Structures are given as C-alpha cells and as structure tokens.
Input
Amino acid sequence: MTFRPELTDTSSEHMHQAFFVEWIRQNHKEVFVFAIPNGGGRSQADGMALKMEGVVKGVSDLEIRWLDGSKRTLFLEMKKVTGGTISPDQFKFMSMMTDAGFPCVVGFGFEDAKAKFLEFTNVPA
Output
C-alpha cells in the first residue's frame, strides 16, 4: 500500500501537479504528458549546465501531446490554488506558444487543471 497524502487548497504546487499527472495517465491514454523541469533551487554550476543543455526560464510545467497523429499539444502551467502567479518569463513563453498555435493554460491546483484539460478536449466532467 502506497501512502497518499490528502490534497487540499494549501497543498504545494508540486503535490497538485503530481495528482494531475497521475489522474491524466490513469484516465486519458490518448495523451502523453511529461514534465519540463525548469525551476527549483540549484547550485550556480548546475544552473549553468542546465542552461547550456537548453533549459529555458518560463517554459510551462507540463506538455501534453495527443497520440493520434494530430500533433495536438497543450502546455499547462501549474500553480498553487491560492497565491500562484505567472512570472514575466512564463507569460512570454505562453504568449509565444499561443501565437505559434500551441494552446497554453494555467491550472490553479489539480481540480482547475483537470477542468481546463477537459474543457480543452471538449470532454464532459
């Protein structure tokens, strides 16, 4: 048996994102979701190495790709239920992707992210 903490409005962004990824992987086999690790505390050396490898500030937390050959993609930026804000770099990335035809949404917690995903896919809740 795996311990699974209760998800609340005060749970961390990490926890809400983990619940969302688990939910989408269990319920939506038509998509592939993956995290884009571009935040968090790192040493200066690690930050420089990641930047050299292509890590870019502001890139959304999750990319969701449909596996039906349509090349449909959705970027999802996860935020805490309360107090989460979009940084200027995140706004710039989302604007650039939207202008290029790749939709972006911000999920303020698991339930909001789930609702926005379902709205995007036109699937009733």
The CA atoms of residues 20 and 60 lie 14 Å apart. The two ends are 29 Å apart (CA to CA).
